[in-house]
Amino acid sequence: MHMSDGIVNAPISVLFALIAVLGLAFCVARARRDLDDRTAPMAGLVAAFVFAVQMLNFPILPGVSGHLLGGALCAILVGPYVGALCVSIVLLLQALLFADGGLSALGTNITNMALIGSFVGYGVAVAMRRIAMRSRGGLVLAAFVAAWVNTVVASLGFVLEYALGGQGLALGTVFGLMTGFHALIGIGEGIITALTVGAVAAARPDLVYLTRAAGPSLQIRTQGARS
To answer: Is the pLDDT of residue 63 over 60?
Structure first.
């Protein structure tokens, strides 16, 4: 849901740029506790993966495109604070190198995809943590649901911003297009997130931030299924 320059007016762009800066500053402060010899390399890998999948864009409105977000994926694997920073770095590089999303809209894009996406996705995953800790199948299900919900809720962030500072289209039209398209995109995001998290859990369950405490249990169940 990359926004281009001029989709919302300058005051709203500045407001959400401030929100993005404050949110990222908070994430930087909290991420220091999560970064270790396991999380740091994984953060680089998930950022690179999200960068790749976000290059697939689907036009929704003039100047607005939909695509996979990666917030839930990052949050489940490396935590919401590091995850939000990973997505933000991806968005910054895309804006600077590929003009994918305007620089004046960077604050809104970071708010929607990095902050809302990561924290909503992680919140859903935490709510389903008991299911996720039972087996790898439960973890895969939690990852799918978290990714779908994070995609739809992040699109509502755009709708809010457009309601505050957008013009040209009826709000009902924007709401219908954004939520409708992203409900479909969320299915694809859910499948990719579930497959990726499931693959990591199968190989190295200790690298999954959400269920790190249950890593040995997941590994034992996986080995038992193989045998």
So the answer is: no
